[in-house]
Design goal:
Elements lengths: L13 H22 L1 H4 L2 H4 L4 H25 L4 H15 L19 H21 L13 H13 L1 H16 L5 H9 L2 H25 L1 H11 L14 H17 L4 H19 L16 H7 L16 H7 L24 H10 L9 H4 L3
The structure holds zinc ion (2 copies).
């Protein structure tokens, strides 16, 4: 599957076919959001977009589904992608996608974040597919590598369950710190200029994230869960999503803790979420794009790919998600010039394939032949 001819190239009609299918599926999912907004859209997110914006987006989506299918028909020898695209587009039209209209939404306790999933996926595809196509790190790696569907399921579920994660990750903060009187600190944070408040939020959350990340690498039972994230051999923009529920819950609870208790504004919180969502995807991407000297200030794909390095001698480096200086501070920094790791993934590990099996496996079994922690294997 890693063969060179599997990678899509511009001009052979497979990219346009894949885009057509992707837009067709997105249009159908968007229609579902319009028909059942109580069940499939999130109240917080509904405040960000308007019904008119979403209506235009679906209309544009359906028209583009047909246009890309047409392009694929013209370019490709194999027309199957285009046919699927046309069928999805036609279904969207039949289900009333061209004339959907927003309506008042009733209050519900629970809903799935399908709107968040569609829009985030759309934005990520728009940003990262062209980057990986034009500036790839591994030229031989195809987007459709053997485990891309598993990674997509991880991406989908973590987005659909956004409300659940929001509620769950807030619980520890309220339980442990709710009783404290932090009015003074909260007032101080509140009075800060926005840019400084945001910068402090990023540094503090990264420190907490760093601690959580190291805990996952240094406790044998927890490492079983986090090692799922390290199991990816094909690093790309979707690969970062492969994270076990326990890992997401614990790491997010820890990283968000300062945001929940120190009085950061809603604006800071939201900008932080958007920045982290894009940046976390970026550092896993299959791209050689670097930021020149800026790579010493903010983490890049090269930096995080070293964290995923397959060679045990480099295990246990680069835990920080945003700021390399945090690793410098704690002696876990590794960025050798312009060198990249030869491979990513884990040696001696046998993980089952697929989301459900990977979900239950760490609870009951050890994916490794021995119970050495990654840092113990590094020999440092
Ligand atoms: Zn890690
Ligand atoms: Zn990672």
């Amino acid at each position: 599957m890693k063969s060179e001819n599997n990678r899509m190239r511009i001009g052979e009609g497979r990219i346009s076919g894949a885009i057509s299918i992707f837009l067709g599926v997105s249009s159908l999912a968007s229609i579902l959001c319009f028909k059942f907004p109580e069940q499939f859209t999130t109240p917080e997110f509904r405040e960000v977009y308007t019904a008119a914006m979403a209506e235009n987006l679906i209309l544009g989506g359906i028209i583009s589904t047909f246009l890309f299918a047409l392009l694929s028909i013209l370019l490709a020898k194999n027309k199957k992608y285009a046919v699927v695209g046309v069928v999805l587009g036609a279904l969207s039209v039949l289900l009333g996608g061209m004339t959907v209209e927003g309506r008042a939404v009733e209050k519900t306790n629970w809903s799935l974040g399908l709107d968040w999933l569609i829009l985030d996926l759309l934005v990520m595809v728009l940003i990262f597919v062209p980057i990986e196509l034009v500036f790839p790190k591994n030229k031989l790696q195809s987007k459709f590598h053997p485990e891309w569907k598993t990674d997509l399921i991880y991406f989908g579920i973590s987005h659909l369950a956004i409300q659940l994660f929001g509620v769950l990750t807030k619980k520890p903060a309220v339980a442990f710190f709710g009783w404290m009187n932090l009015d003074g600190v909260q007032q101080w944070v509140n009075d800060l200029p926005f840019v400084i408040e945001l910068f402090i939020a990023l540094v503090v959350t990264d420190l907490f994230q760093y601690a959580a990340h190291r805990i996952f690498h240094s406790h044998y039972f927890l490492w079983r869960f986090h090692s799922i994230h390290h199991s990816t051999e094909n690093m790309d923009w979707l690969a970062g999503s492969r994270t076990h529920f326990i890992d997401i819950f614990f790491t997010r609870s820890m990283s968000y803790l300062p945001l929940y208790i120190l009085g950061f504004s809603t604006l800071t919180f939201n900008v932080y979420i958007v920045f982290i969502a894009i940046h976390a995807v970026f550092i896993h991407a299959n791209t050689r794009l670097n930021f020149g000297l800026l790579k010493y200030v903010i983490t890049t794909p090269q930096y995080h790919h070293w964290h995923h390095c397959k060679e045990p001698e480099h295990y246990g480096n680069n835990f920080a998600v945003v700021f390399p200086f945090i690793d410098k501070l704690f002696g876990t920094y590794y960025l050798p010039g312009n060198e990249w790791p030869e491979g990513t993934g884990l040696v001696d590990a046998s993980f089952p394939k697929g989301f459900m099996k990977q979900f239950t496996y760490p609870f009951i079994k050890n994916p490794f032949k021995n119970d050495l922690l990654p840092e113990e294997k590094s020999g440092r």
